[in-house]
Amino acid sequence: AAHAYLAEKRHGPRPALPADLVQRFLERASDMSSTVERVGTFDEVPSAVARYLAGVNSADWPGVCWPEYATLGWREAGVAVESRPTVGHDALGITGCFCAIAETGTLVFLTGTETPSATFLLPETHVAIVRAAQVVPAMEDAFARIRAECYELPRAVNLVSGPSRTGDIEQTIVLGAHGPRRLHVVLVG
Hints:
Blueprint: H1 2-8, H2 21-31, E1 35-39, H3 45-55, E2 63-65, H4 74-77, E3 81-82, E4 92-95, E5 99-101, E6 106-110, H5 118-121, E7 125-131, E8 135-136, H6 139-149, E9 157-160, E10 165-166, E11 174-175, E12 182-188
Parallel strand pairs: 1-12, 2-3, 2-4, 4-7, 5-8, 7-12
Antiparallel strand pairs: 5-6, 6-9, 10-11
């Protein structure tokens, strides 16, 4: 009955989006203080990450990555990264995402044993690898994809729009208050 109700539920009004959802996602992610780079293949990801880290003077920081990215050519690119859960002192976390929302520039993460949330929440610098096919138009589409592709809902769904920020003190925006100070997106495809 719940599934029937959700299927019948009409969506509210949505803003018009351009045909190129990937470009819209990259623009909106940039608007949210993320940095972005687009590469053609996964083989280019380690070099793109190395370029980014060199630009923020952090190429020698220790880092961790999700298991699915362990076999990328990190060592050859000069990126010190291990495939293991973060223990809190790692300066760099490299993850994928479940999908990305073009309308808002938001990354969607589903927690699990192979996708620990600490990797994108604890390190000072978070690098997210996004496949072009993972970009969906809006939040409603992200949740429809979760329902369609997941047998069970995960323990947590995290929506991340740019680096952590707060404006609590004198209404001045401070990055990195409750999570990563930097978020860099490497879009593949």
